[in-house]
Each structure stands twice: as C-alpha cells, then as structure tokens.
Design a protein that fits this description.
By secondary structure, the chain is mainly alpha-helical. It is built from 19 helices and two strands.
C-alpha cells in the first residue's frame, strides 16, 4: 500500500511480473537452489534443466519481438516458473509428509525472492518518506571512533582497481555467500526428509524484515552521499553538506537534520550488510575449515567495503553487530524453547541497541567532543553483547559425555 502511494508496484506485484518480464536472475535462481534441497539429485537436474529451457524460450521470444532488456536481466523467470510448478506438484501429486516437505522447500525459495523484492521496495519508501537525513548526527558520533570511513576510503582507493573490484564483488554478492552457507547447512534435508531446527536463512530473512523499520526511525544516507559526490547514480555534491569524503573528516559542530534527494535510500542505520555478514560468520563456525575461512573473509571484506566505499559510518557497523546477534539469539530461542538465558540475552541486546540509537540522536555533540571516553564505551557496549551471545549459546551446545572406561576383569585361573 505504501509503495502504491508513491507510484510504485508493491513487492508481490513485482514478483508476479517476473513470470513474464526479464527479471534479475540472481535472487530467483538462488531461491530455486534453496528449494532443491528437498529434491533428489535426479529431480534437481530436471528442475534446473526445466528452468534453463523456459528461460531460453522466453529469451528467444523477447529477441524476436524486439523487446528491450537490461544486460543483467536476460533470464531468471524460468526459476520462478519451476518453483511454482513444484508447488502445484506438491498439492496435486504429493500427500502427507512428502507434500509438507516439498511445500516447505518451495516456500523457502519464494521467501528469499520475496525478501529481496520487499527490501527493494522498502529502500524506495525510505527515500520518499524521509526527506531529511541525520547524517550530521552520526558523523559527529563517529569522531569518537576516529572517523573510520575516511581513512578506509583513502586506503581502498590506494589499492587500485584490483582491490576495489574484489571488495565490491564481496559486498555485492553477499546474498550468494548466504545461499552457499545455507545449502551446506541444508545438505541433508533430502535424505533426512526434514529441515534442521535452525539455519542461516531464518536469521537472514528476519534481519532484512526488521532492519528497514529502523531506517524509517533513523534515516541516514552515508558519508559518500552526505559528504561526497554520491554513488550508483544518486546523490551529488550539490546535495552534500560539504565535499569532504574521504580527504577531510567533518568538524565537530552542532548537528541538525538536512534535506537530501528523493532517490537515495536512507539505509545506513543499522548496517544490514554488517548484520548479514555477521550472521554468515556465525553460521560458518561449525562448518569445515574452508567454510570457516570463507565466512571470516566475507565478514572482514564486507566491513572494509562498507567503510571504504563510504556507504557507512563506524557507528552503523557497531549497531549492525548488536542487531545481528540479538536476532540470532531470538531465532534460536524460538525454535529450541525460550529459557531464562535466551530471554535475558534478547532483552539485553534490545536495550543496548535502543541505547545506541538514542545516544546517537541526543548525545552526538558530547560523544564527538570526548572521544577518549565515548569511543571505548561504544566498543565496550558492542563487546558486551558479543560476550553475552557467546556465554548464552555456549550453554545450548550439547556436551559430549565422557567415554566409559572398561572395568578390569579378573584373570582366569
């Protein structure tokens, strides 16, 4: 309804049009990949072949009709047709637990697609509904952390095109990394005929569901927009408070809301890329060594990208970590049963999250003028949530029973 109010189709309408139009293929094929965890290997090959065949037919029809298509939107609808076809098969050809399992697989794949559509719609709404941004407040708070986006931007620029392209690839393909980790976690679903109690997709989707609500409460566009030339075709120096990023950190002055264009999303507070990368890091800790290394690399590279490209302030990243850990505990508690430790941790993370937002809004000048005091306090607040998460989840891990020692038997006479 909000999207229609601003003259845009809603996420469900946009998803329906992907059945005919040329959509972005990544989310659709990623969703289909998640759906295939409930299928046998033969069924997976049939599903993939059918999706590619449908896309080839649509591509030829569009080419013959002379339809204009974006370079990155040549195919993808076939995956959506296959997922819907599997839903029809589940209803008409399956019964009992097999029907439920296949519908869960289809639902998991469609949720990933719908989450992406809803996220894009949310970003558009934030730009239209929040004409004023609070970047000056966060930039002032960032003095307590040493304005990390400014040196990170200069360092990334000094690495040249190779480093820039690598970091940008990691930043842009975060959802692909999440799908890879989820496929590893769900690798046994087809054999066991059931889903695990908790996996990455649950946390990933809830982060994307709740995060944009905070964007509406605390609209921020980021250093490269508020203090630089903008990026991705939006913003500009004429909209910036001053053209300072990444050469000169802004001075510590009394902050106030400033107007910005009606296109750039207000998607900085919290940093959802940081939250998602933190969730990926957490869910790779029990995987093989290569997966653990990949999760660590993705987290570090994502943090470098968010700061180096000027998309986020350091204060955004701190809130993003607290946000991710609080949601992860809540999602695990919802499946295993709420216990006092889980309730305390979720309550504590929520309080810290709210306290950080309130301090950014109402105490920025004090925090910027006293970095020696407030910088360590911000790091301590985030570290306390990390410690609480580790302490809470450690009690949930099953402990291996000590092996029984064989009793000594008397020697035969």
């Amino acid at each position: 309804m909000a999207a229609r109010h601003y003259g845009q189709p809603g996420p469900i309408s946009s998803q329906v049009t992907d059945l005919i139009s040329a959509p972005k293929p990544g989310p659709l094929y990623g969703g289909m990949a998640l759906m295939t965890v409930v299928l046998t290997w033969r069924q997976r090959f049939v599903a993939i072949g059918a999706a590619i065949g449908i896309d080839i037919v649509f591509l030829l029809v569009r080419w013959a009709a002379g339809a204009r298509m974006a370079d990155s939107h040549l195919f993808g609808g076939g995956a959506l047709w296959v997922m819907l076809g599997c839903a029809v098969i589940a209803v008409t050809r399956r019964t009992g637990q097999e029907r439920v399992l296949l519908l869960k697989g289809v639902g998991l794949g469609l949720l990933l697609v719908a989450g992406r559509k809803a996220g894009d719609t949310w970003l558009y709404i934030t730009a239209k509904a929040r004409p004023l941004v609070l970047d000056q407040y966060v930039a002032t708070v960032d003095h307590a952390l040493g304005n990390p986006s400014w040196p990170a931007g200069r360092i990334l620029k000094a690495t040249g095109p190779v480093g820039t392209h690598l970091v940008h690839l990691v930043y842009a393909q975060l959802a692909v990394a999440a799908v890879v980790v989820a496929l590893y976690q769900l690798r046994n679903v087809a054999v066991e005929r059931r889903f695990p109690r908790h996996h990455l997709v649950r946390t990933f989707l809830v982060i994307g569901l709740l995060g944009p609500a905070v964007y509406m409460i605390f609209p921020v566009v980021g250093p490269v927009f508020a203090y630089g030339p903008g990026a991705s075709g939006t913003g500009g120096v004429h909209w910036a408070v001053a053209d300072l990023w990444p050469s000169t950190p802004p001075p510590v002055n009394t902050p106030h809301p400033v107007p910005y264009d009606g296109i750039t999303p207000r998607n900085c507070m919290p940093s959802l890329h940081t939250a998602w990368a933190t969730a990926i890091f957490i869910h790779t800790r029990k995987g093989p060594r290569l997966l653990r290394y990949a999760g660590t690399f993705w987290l570090i590279a994502t943090l470098c990208a968010t700061l180096g490209f000027g998309y986020h302030y350091g204060a955004d990243l701190i809130v993003g970590v607290v946000f991710a850990l609080t949601i992860e505990v809540a999602m695990r508690s919802s499946r295993r049963g709420w216990d006092p430790g889980g309730i305390r941790m979720v309550a504590y993370g929520t309080v810290v999250f709210g306290a950080l937002l309130a301090s950014y809004r109402y105490l920025p000048l004090e925090m910027g003028r006293h970095p020696v005091v407030f910088g360590p306090l911000l790091i301590l607040a985030m570290s306390s949530v990390v410690y609480g998460y580790l302490r809470t989840t450690r009690h949930w891990e099953p402990t291996a029973a000590p092996a029984r020692q064989p009793e000594l038997q008397p020697e035969p006479v």
